[in-house]
Amino acid sequence: MSFFTDDMLTSTIRLLVIVLLSGLIGIEREVKNHPAGLRTHIVVGVGSCMLTLVSLFGFEDYIRSHEDIRGFDPSRIPSYIISGIGFLGAGTILVQGGITVKGLTTAASIWVVAGIGIVVGIGMYYEAVLATIIIITTLFFLNRFEKFYKKKVDTKDNLLLVITLSKGEGHVKRINSELSSQEIEISQYNLEEDKTGEEGIMKYTLSLSMNPKTNLSEVLENLQDMSFITSVNINKRT
């Protein structure tokens, strides 16, 4: 009897196909600086494919050996686990300034680990090991690949600019005009009241793309010279 069964071959093909398809979508999202990129898409894709395989092959032996049982669904509890674990994963996601998201890959890995636990619990060891190898490879090695192709595709620096300013007509327009004059592109922005400071102070968060040759010090000095701006903070996005 061969160890490698037809079901194992089917699982291997389907898991590898979802790695390819979800990876292609993830690359497109990564290039456009969206929060969920290559690794997140692959982890979620592999997890959902694996759980679908559970529903197709995981309960066949149980159903055959318990033909007398009616009104019992062995997949009911796993479905609750997958729904509930999403709340735990949501706790790892951080939003900065309303535009920058961190922790999506961690949330995805928590969700897929719950799925692996279900797969092991019902005895589908091969599928669990294969999915784990794929996910570990994704998380460890594709991080370098992400950085490599992002450098090839995007030659500009990506920055996160946080400005606190007094509320007033035309203030945001003046900031945007200054950035535009320096050929700095604004890809995302968020304007909200600064709840940590005094009343009438706004927090303006911008995601920027700029040429590495742009004089960043000059840009910061020009912004700080504006009387309505109280603080300027800038960080390089990774």
TrEMBL record:
Q: Where in the cell is it found?
A: Cell membrane
InterPro entries to which the protein is assigned, alphabetical: MgtC/SapB/SrpB/YhiD_fam (IPR003416), MgtC_SapB_SrpB_YhiD_N (IPR049177)
Q: Where is the MgtC/SapB/SrpB/YhiD N-terminal domain?
A: 15-147
**What's in the keyword line of the UniProt record?**
Cell membrane, Membrane, Transmembrane, Transmembrane helix
**Top-level taxonomic group:** Bacteria
Q: What is its main location?
A: membrane
What is the protein's membrane topology class? Multi-pass membrane protein
Q: Name one GO cellular component term.
A: plasma membrane
Membrane spanning residue stretches: 12-28, 40-59, 80-99, 111-142
PANTHER family, per the entry = MAGNESIUM TRANSPORTER YHID-RELATED, PROTEIN MGTC
Q: Which family does it belong to?
A: Belongs to the MgtC/SapB family.
The protein, known as = MgtC/SapB family protein
Q: Which organism is it from?
A: Rossellomorea vietnamensis
Lineage, opening ranks: Bacteria, Bacillati, Bacillota, Bacilli, Bacillales
